[in-house]
Amino acid sequence: MARKTTIVQQLINSRSTIKPFKCSNVSKKYSLPLTVGSKKTITSDSHFFTLKPNSRQSMKKLSVLTAAALMLLVSCSKSVSDKQQEEENTVEATTRRCASYEVLQAKLKEDPSLQKRMDEIEAFTARYVAQKSVNGKLEADGITMTIPVYVNVLYSNAAENISDAQIQSQIDVLNEDYAGSNGDVNKTSTYQTVKAGNTNIRFTLAGIIRKSTTITSWGTNDAMKKSSQGGIDPTNPTTSLNMWSCNLGSGLLGYAQFPGGSTATDGVVILYSAFGSRAKVPSGTFTSTYDLGRTATHEVGHWLNLRHIWGDRRCGDDFVGDTPAHDGANYGCPAAGAKSACSGKPLEMNMNYMDYTADACMYMFTAGQETRMRATFAAGGPRASLR
Ligand SMILES: [Zn+2]
């Protein structure tokens, strides 16, 4: 059942000692209602942003990047009581929550030049996709991209200091999911014809950097990526993928930086207990439901320029031609045959990694998503420096 108030909101309401939010250290938080295995309505309250349904769109439109920013409540870890902070730290990730889009909106507001860079990347990607449709295979298609991965572990207790084996299991999951060799890829034949198969994108563990910290909840303001703020600076960000494992707080599972952002903050952040696969390392530290490593599969998808499959708005655009319009995110493990309320009521692709379903119920990218990711590596593309 959808709850009209959020976990964090309830925590706020339950405390009488909370100071008013007021800070310059901007940390964006957002929240979604708890719904398992069904559609949800994204709700709002006075403190959190909302994705209000726009007028129905019969087609995906190339307007997301220029749409007015959806703003959210500014909160600040320094302005809440320690008690509340402790409670936020212990909020379980009971529903998938990825802050990539919200963090992007914050960065677009902070840096007006980012929009221009992202528009240029979008135009480049559109040309790449159009060229592929004419010529079939493109130069970048045949190359196996092997991406060195640095994993930055920030821990305030033993559980957060995840093992080398748990970290390796995440690399293994990424390799399986991006090769289309994941064991559940044929769980259903739904959308079989558009499954990506092997994207020729691979990952190899280049190093693990560990740091003990007294910070127990990192939020989404990139502090974990900055040694000046107690975090760990990225290693070789123009030629590598950096991942941070830490506690984000507020039940957040992770967030990614899209192509076009600053190299100083490039990479993906994953909740420590959603990092890796319980199926591969049963002795690891894992939350329930998001314990098969698919949070990283999803976040690395963002890092390679994929959007949420619903386009972050009702029946919005994910810039991919072979994904159906979704009227919103799906959660849990939706029943087979669930249909979108968007024009034409298409069968939803809730098994796509870029939806919000449970780890066990997402198992595919599409060919169109593969092309979009591959475009980032092409000559002139935003991640060509990884070649
Ligand atoms: Zn996401």
TrEMBL record:
The keyword Metal-binding applies. Gene3D superfamilies: Collagenase (Catalytic Domain). This is Pregnancy-associated plasma protein-A. Pfam families: Peptidase_M43. Belongs to the peptidase M43B family. SUPFAM superfamilies: Metalloproteases ('zincins'), catalytic domain. Residues 293-376 form the Peptidase M43 pregnancy-associated plasma-A domain. It comes from Lacibacter cauensis.
